[in-house]
Design brief:
There is one protein chain. The protein is mostly helical. It has a single domain, classed as 23S rRNA-intervening sequence (de novo design (two linked rop proteins), Up-down Bundle), CATH 1.20.1440.60. The protein contains 4 helices and no strands. The longest helix is centred in the middle third of the chain and has 27 residues.
Amino acid sequence: MLRFQDLLAYKKGFTLAMTIYNISKTFPKEETDSLTDQVRRSSRSVCANMAESYRKRLYPKHFLSKLTDCDAENSETQTWLEFAFACEYISELQFQELTKESVEVGKLINYMILNPKKFGSS
């Protein structure tokens, strides 16, 4: 039986969240309660919402609702990364790489939204 941890979108989202966590350790102290906290929360929330959605897959509307929450959190993460780049906390290369990974996670989430039956949703 497939576990939510086995979903490709979850795996890639988790890796991205951990990369963001490690990079955000270098952000200035004055950003701790704002940008640092926000980008960590939104990137982690992608995985948390995916876990919830997978557990609700027997209820299609709930499944899709939680997946759209995943997608929204992923978009929020991209916004925080834009701020981190604009504030010069991350390099252009880091920004491009993290954004590319986030876009890939978004595509995987979108695939799940468009193909719920492939994930056990009725």
